[in-house]
């Protein structure tokens, strides 16, 4: 994790009179300026709340653009880093030596490889294939009526898939996966690191496939139960009623999780996934207990002994513990709000240490909503140089911040009426930006408030002799919207950073610019934090041209 600053930092928003010397860069796009902090009133379609998951944006507003007239008090002139943003002419001059190559022919194969058969879907297909390979012979065995495969076995398979689905979303499993992958040395072959990085943040494919497989096995279980159920008449009726309810809930959860429906009815999906999932697990618990009591009665054995011999029981125990665990971290914590503009605010917390590239869930109503944001540890600065350096191994700090932009009703209220306290739930979870450490050099691309997750990495990994990075940030009035402190941190970690003010230049061709910066810096890979549309476009545009690119999946 990063260390706190031990001396007044040149990046502090208090130092609003800092003079920036001319910095000659390979791109020749930055000029001298004097910083003055101010604000703006803009909504930018490039904005993103945090960048790890689709919980972080409102699909109804993320692509809309609304320019609101600023009041005189809000339109203070800023002359600092604004002058260092790239102009249209400078962008063209930079791009000319690195023209974007045309894509090769055979577009069907290219689309199949880089859009449809991404690592997420590969993991999904492999998981589904494994379950299909298992369920087909089990169906054959079950038709023999020789007891070689019973409804209890189908219940075990159902519970196993539910366990896998829940495990793929568990904070510590995700963190462990990233920790293993990011421990790979940069000396390993690039393609190996690329595939490992893709797997690290694509575990959602297993989650989805395991959920679908659980439904298939459960239907198989219900079918066998209808023929071979044991127990009293009341017990059998109860099992059938519970089976019908559980089947309905599982089908509804899977339908609502379809990408188009999830994006269109995100709040409904979130509530159904939470309460419907809990209800389904509760119903399965009831079925296991009733069937166990019936089996114990038929075999004249103690119920506890039969339960102990039932694999589905132990798997349900694991699932239940996984579901309870995040709530053990539920805390109502104080928060300090620093309103950067009418479009963005920075929330600061002092309740726990966080490592780089982690996200934490925030909420006003923990049972009904959970919004994940990227946490930003403070940059480490040496007392003598006041220049960010790599954090010392043993350093700890309980301070971190969160960058929030206006991407929907919830974030809008957070900006206009900041709370003094807010609920946090769950353990910090590693996000996609963490894979940037696997590549050297690496290009980091952000749009709007997607710079927040990037700063989580940049603050903890300043450029050094052993690891270098470049930054490309496109945003509407970046200094006016996010403040000179945020812009200053970007230039502190990469003096050659290309910061684009889309209010002046319009929306740039991020694929072409990323390609040019990759060629200039000889970067091994690109990591982008943006909204779903831009992320998919840039990742596809670069991957199809042979550049490893990584971005959030937006599958939850």
Automatic annotation (TrEMBL):
Keyword terms: Membrane, Transmembrane, Transmembrane helix
Domain of life: Eukaryota
Segments passing through the bilayer: 123-142, 204-224, 236-258, 278-299, 311-330
PANTHER family membership: ENZYME, PUTATIVE (AFU_ORTHOLOGUE AFUA_8G01222)-RELATED, TRANSMEMBRANE PROTEIN
Name of the protein: Integral membrane protein TmpA
Upper lineage: Eukaryota, Fungi, Dikarya, Ascomycota, Pezizomycotina
